Amino acid sequence: MAEPIRWVQTNLRQTDxxxxxxxxxxxxxxxxxxxxxxxxxxxxxxxxxxxEFHYPSPSLAPGRDMFGEVLxxxxxxxxxxxxxxxxxxTVKQVFDAHPEWFFRQANGEPVIYNGLYxxxxxxxxxxxxxxxxLTEALDKYEVDGLFFNMFGNQSRDYSGHEVGLCxxxxxxxxxxxxxxxxxxxxxxxDYRKFMFVSSREVAKxxxxxxHAKRPRAGYFNYIQESTDGIMSESNTAVDRPLPLWPYSASxxxxxxxxxxxxxxxxxLNMQFVDMSWRFATVPAPEIALRMWQNIAHGGALTFExxxxxxxxxxQALETAKPIFRWAAANERYYTGEESAARVLLLGASQxxxxxxxxxxxxGIFRLLSEEHIPFAVSDNxxxxxxxxxxxxxxxxxxxxxxxxxxxxxxxxxxxxxxPPEFPIAEVVKTTKDLKGYLRIRxxxxxxxxxxxxxxxxxxxxxxxxxxxxxxLTLVPPSMIxxxxxxxxxxxxxxxxxIVIRGNITWIPWDLGRLYYHLSLPAHAHFFRDVxxxxxxxxxxxxxxxxxxxxTLMKQRGQTLVHLINLTGTSQTGYFPPIxxxxxxxxxAGVFTHAETVRNARTLAVHASRQHTEFVxxxxxxxxxxxxx
Length: 628
Ligand SMILES: [Zn+2]
Fold this sequence. Notes:
By secondary structure, this protein is α/β, with parallel strands linked by helices. It has 13 helices and 34 strands. The structure holds zinc ion.
């Protein structure tokens, strides 16, 4: 938290145990990386291990300590080393000795992938043997941190084959004790809760061990609880549904930093296209975009490769190097950043044991970004009421805490056909799939919609009883063909498309999902007018293009405005962004000095009545404005 992080991950193959440690560290130092995440143990150890059921890589020369060498030479170059462990699988010898430690499919068969046997998070390998392995590692090496891959019984293997849920004795006994019933065959809410609890138990035990043995070492995995840093990944997969999510890194880092502000966000920037093509690289501008997004939201700068840095596809590495060096040269701006945003977008919390769709959330995320409304994302409800916000927006998840927040004067906007978990208005019914319209009844309330009277409505809609005449009303489905008949039976209703009760506004249809898929300007304009009605004094006003992402951060008494140019994104393509000129920004707060860092200049500032104006003369890929 006190030093800038420029983190390189090498996912070593066991054959890389023969790597040239001096060369690797020289390559890292040359690109100004200051943290190395590198294979240490688990499936294969990169050091001579004496712990039972833990085996060095077959490529580790007898007597050689590759990990120890890397650690030593990295430390002489002031590069921290985080050791990577994977306890999710191990070799047949261990299975033969302790079959009860392993994942059992419902048919009793183990899960075997390329000769490795999957362990179970509730079995003795994770619960006891892993602790012995880690004790040796922590006693022997002055690591700066440990990272753990794959935590919690994956239900698919690397090739995407379903293996179902673990039915080992430990899981069965534990599940019965928790829920007084048998394990299901497909994950349901109870099972997700079971896995949530099980993985957190192991996560805590490992964290306690690390903190006891090496109090200054960081603990990292993909779990928020018990860890010192929150890991996530910006990655791709060929069968993922379109559209792409070009805000992936922003989303992950914004959410991590604002859900657990005491922890650093390390969003791994995965260079490869998919599991089957670990050596094929995603577009270079995508790698660069994730890097800028990571640091613009106050997270670590990251880059990940498989194998060593001597790559068969060097595009990603050659993209990463100059950005790492630039970030190193300007590292004073990349520590101690905190979001200064005054709008909170509530993420969908996993802690409830339920899953929420990402599309409604992503649609609102995009709308906020395109409107240049600085916003923090949090799925930690404990934030509510502790930090000052002008507005809290909920999409799929609107918990009762929001009602208390509104009662104490906070503004809440719920955008979802699912009724919130607290009463706002009398619900008549929810229709799952409604293909109709919403009619603008009062254009004075929606000035951005002067050229349209109808908004497209598709999907779920909740009907609310209303005694007042609403500014937006439902137009139910009507005939769609033949053309002679189109909508000739259309009629209006007084069913509201928006409900305002004191400080709480509820849009009872899926604006976020519709925008995510259709990007209709009418929906964007509606959103803009709703936001401006609730919060007329925007924190930031600008003439920037919607594809300029802007974040507003505080840092040791100064304010930072990050601008990221996303104009290179197009469908599945990532191209170099189109350079822009003269971006006007009007920001809340009185500042006397403004300078840009990437294109070093001092800017003229015009401060008046709690606002400051300045012009960013040019934006290529990224710019940072420092305000004092
Ligand atoms: Zn199990």
